[in-house]
Amino acid sequence: MPFAPARPTLAARSVPALARSLALSLALSLALSHPVLAQAETVAADARGTLLTGSLRGDETDEYSVAAEAGQTLSVDLATSNASLSFNILPQGGAEALFVGSTSGAVADIPLPAAGTYVVRVSLMRNAARRGESADYSVLIGLGGADFADGLAGGPDWWAVSGVTGGALNIRSGPGTRYPVTGKAQNGEVMQNRGCRMSGATRWCSVRVDGSGVQGWVAGRYLVETAAPMAAEVPPGGPKGNGLPFDATGEIPCAASGDTLASCPFGVVRDGPGNAGVWVVLDDGTERAILFEGGKPVSADAPADVTFDKSGDMFRIRIGAERYAIPEAVVNGG
Fold it and tell me: Which residue ranges does the record assign to the SH3b domain (predicted)?
């Protein structure tokens, strides 16, 4: 009888197949997660800045290289159509970033520790890249001395808007006219100074508007030094809050339990229209923090859920057995 080779068992056939499958999967994973360099450009940056534009999709990355001396300040700000786009700054050939935009924001002014070449790397965050999202952007890269008004270059703690004609001062989401307008301010309005910088030929200042809490960037030529506004007076037995000065204080109806409401002292820190933290001291001495976002109460520092309805301009809020009546003006001002 002729010799018949033994039929391979399922296990014998599956081991090499499994190894090949794992290797292929690993290679695909590495290929999908590895950034694809779409553009590399050397930028001759100066104090006025160089404006560059680009578009990215998925794992694509753009890199801009800048030669600098020790002690110079590398200034970068990014405007984009996709909030998942960010930039990092790192020494050429280095692995440790000097600035990480995904956690630090879209504006950077970095004093450089040593002479050499530094890379501004623009890319989508990992989850957005995996979804194949795209983004258009503009990035302004400057090299020189970034002028911060709060401590770094002197400058007042408070500004007043002055010299605006034919309308209101635009408050923008970033330091330049290519950023969208997020608010308006009238002559005489007072703003907290959070630092200024040069973007192109214009001085832009990061501000927070007193009272409303609107935050953003305004053109510095419309700002003049002014005195600090009068702080809101916290009533006796009033709330401590989170350490930030209250934009307004007063009393609202509330109760720790039951249907009978009493006057309870409150303080509010605003963060633009519809957004605020309200601290209330209940009649039993408990201090409750209630967070408003998008024009409605969304959470509190309590284990119970926040529920509410609204009658006119009054929020009627329940947190477990607790009850509150908070006018809309407390949240928005006015």
Answer: 168-223
The pTM of this model reads 0.78
% helix, strand, coil for the chain, step of 5: 10, 45, 40
Residue 236, C-beta contacts closer than 8 angstroms, at least 6 positions apart: 265
Is 90 exposed, middle or buried (CB count within 10 Å of its CB: 0-12, 13-18, 19+)?
middle
Helix (H, G, I), strand (E, B), or coil: what is residue 123? strand
- Parallel/antiparallel/unpaired status of strands 60-68 and 36-42: parallel
Region for residue 18 given its phi and psi (left: phi exceeds 0; alpha: psi -120 to 50; beta: otherwise): alpha
Lowest mean pLDDT among 102-111, 150-159, 216-225, 247-256: 150-159
- pLDDT, position 44: 87
Which residues contact residue 278 at a Cβ distance below 8 angstroms, ignoring those fewer than 6 apart? 266, 267, 268, 289, 290, 291, 292, 326, 330, 331
